[in-house]
Fold:
Amino acid sequence: MHTFGHPCEIDRIADICKRYHIAMVEDSAESIGSYYKGRHTGTFGKIGILSFNGNKTITTGGGGMIITDDDELGILAKHITTTAKKPHPWEFEHDMIGYNYRMPNINAALGCAQMEMLPEFIASKRQTATEYEAFFRSIASVIFVTEPKDCISNYWLNAILLPDEEHREAFLKASNDARVITRPAWILMNELQMFKCAPMGDLSIAKDISARLVNIPSSVRLT
Structure:
């Protein structure tokens, strides 16, 4: 997953999957318009996915897109997401279990129109991130999350790291009291009630980051 639109080291993950013959599904839900080593995210795996949810860089109000260069897999994906109906002028026969995941035409039209604006949307988000980075550079206790090496990020969500959880809570209260909408990162899945008994590895780094991370507005510029 390319968190907040920042590409991860996806080539290393692809190499591991290749070594152990694992088909890689690349979660690029947040990273439309982001590049890793000159290659668009979502194109490294057997399948890549993009999200067009209401809060994403490009939105159709919901839904998303499957990306693949495997012709057979693409045909199969289209088939099972359109109720697995066999082509026929008038018969309705289904040859496998299928799902009605088709995007309505009006939503697709909205997505096509927004896609034409994608370069402008990303340029605006990157400009906002540049101004944030300059602003927080003078505050030693705050780290602004920037794009990794060899990456071009869409900066879908901007984020900062505070020294500890106490500073994070103070920042959240002060900013929201000032009517600036900020929020902590998502709760780790293993901490959700339904997954508390699930197996897990060492999550010490994830826990440390989760306790200090704050998302800040990504669609306005500092003045």
